[in-house]
Structure formats: structure tokens, C-alpha cells
TrEMBL record:
Gene3D superfamilies in UniProt: Ankyrin repeat-containing domain
Record organism: Hevea brasiliensis (Para rubber tree)
Keywords: ANK repeat
Keyword Translocase: no
Short name of any one Pfam family annotated for the protein: Ank_2
Stored InterPro entries: Ankyrin_rpt, Ankyrin_rpt-contain_sf, DUF4219
DUF4219 domain location: 10-36
SMART domains, per database record: ANK (SM00248)
Record's protein name: DUF4219 domain-containing protein
PANTHER family: NO MECHANORECEPTOR POTENTIAL C, ISOFORM D-RELATED, NON-SPECIFIC SERINE_THREONINE PROTEIN KINASE
Mapped ANK repeat ranges: 139-161
Length: 212
């Protein structure tokens, strides 16, 4: 099989680009025919060899798609890839966009964090996991920066769990990490939570600025 890979995962925001990349990947690996198939699977009784080959390709295509899709798609992914599966994903994507219409903008995440609404933050990141490390404000602050300023320890803990060590070192436009903000407002437990994940945070150069 070809060694090319799909560069991103389907996360609810990127279906158009993802579907093109996934189709190219499946074509390159001789798997697209099973996704696009308009005929029934071979009968194991009538064509055992063809059926085994179909099962193998079906599993390979399903594995490829599962490895590049957010968990919200998994209920559908557990089913067979055959007969219009990608079309089914497209329809499901549209439904999920409608269900998440109130959550579809970054401003919704910003507002949920500032209001301390942890459930809404969870919901947003469930549908849009790639937003967890994005800069949400004109001042370059991420979800972790904003959550730190709310003083909500549980929210910060859950964000830290989702972020990589490198994500914790992101500076806003004031050259501050979230840890620096925590130190600035005296949020000791929040600071400890971040340092536990990445001890190198204390060595990141920056400056202490106000909360504005």
C-alpha cells in the first residue's frame, strides 16, 4: 500500500478538505472502490475468496477513516464502509453542524469560558476539538489563558488534560503564558496544575502583564 497519510482528522469544522484528503488516501491505497461500491458484498458461500478480500479491504478502509475522525462520528463508523459511506458521513456532518449551530463560532467558546460554563466548554470542544489550542481573542489568548483568568480550577484542569506540553507554553500578544497569568492573579492551584503537566513552563521567557 501507499505510504501517504491524511494530514488532519475530521472534527466537525473541516469536512470539505478532509473528504478530499481521505478520498485521495483511499484511492492511493486501492480502497476507494469499496467505499464507492454500488453492489452487495460477495456471498461467502458463493465466492469465498472474493468475500475474504472484500472483508479485508472493508476493514482497512474503516480503520483508515476511524483513525482520522473525531469520536462523535464513531457510532456511524462502526458500521460497514460499503455503499455510500462517505455520503452518509457528509449527511451526518450536516446534522452535527445544525445541532451545534449555537456552538459553531469561536466566540461561543470564549463566552462559555468567561461565564464559567464548563458544560458548554465541554460541548464545544467535543464537536470542535481542534479549537482547544487556538487563539480566541485579538490579544492572542487561548482557552487556557481565558480559563485561568476566571479562576475556575476544574475548567483549567480539563483544558490542561487536553493540551500538549507545548500548548501550555503558548504566549499571548503580551508575551504571557497562562502560567504567568495564574501567577499574576495569585491562582496557586491553577499554576501547580500547569507545572505538573509541564515543568519547563517556569523557564519560558515572558513578562507579567495585567489581566486586561
Amino acid at each position: 500500500m501507499a505510504a501517504n497519510t491524511v494530514p488532519e482528522s475530521l472534527d466537525g469544522l473541516n469536512y470539505a478538505n478532509w473528504s478530499v484528503c481521505m478520498k485521495n488516501y483511499l484511492l492511493a491505497n486501492d480502497l476507494w472502490d469499496i467505499v464507492e461500491a454500488t453492489t452487495e458484498a460477495p456471498s461467502p458461500e458463493e465466492a469465498e475468496a472474493e468475500y475474504k478480500a472484500w472483508i479485508k479491504k472493508n476493514a482497512a478502509a474503516l480503520h483508515a477513516i476511524q483513525n482520522h475522525a473525531c469520536r462523535i462520528y464513531f457510532p456511524r463508523l462502526r458500521k460497514s464502509v460499503q455503499q455510500g459511506f462517505v455520503g452518509t458521513l457528509a449527511k451526518m456532518h450536516e446534522v452535527l453542524q445544525d445541532r451545534g449551530s449555537c456552538l459553531c463560532s469561536i466566540s461561543s467558546l470564549h463566552k462559555a469560558i468567561e461565564s464559567g460554563d464548563l458544560n458548554s466548554v465541554r460541548d464545544f470542544l467535543h464537536f470542535h476539538p481542534n479549537a482547544v489550542n487556538k487563539k480566541l481573542t485579538d490579544s492572542g489568548r487561548t482557552a487556557l489563558h481565558l480559563a485561568t483568568l476566571t479562576g475556575k480550577l476544574k475548567m483549567v484542569e480539563e483544558l490542561v488534560e487536553l493540551l500538549s506540553e507545548e500548548d501550555l507554553q503558548v504566549l499571548d500578544n503580551n508575551h504571557e503564558t497562562a502560567l504567568m497569568l495564574a501567577a499574576g492573579v495569585g491562582a496557586t492551584r491553577i499554576a501547580e496544575c500547569m507545572i505538573k503537566k509541564n515543568s519547563k513552563l517556569v523557564t519560558v521567557p515572558g513578562k507579567m502583564i495585567s489581566q486586561s
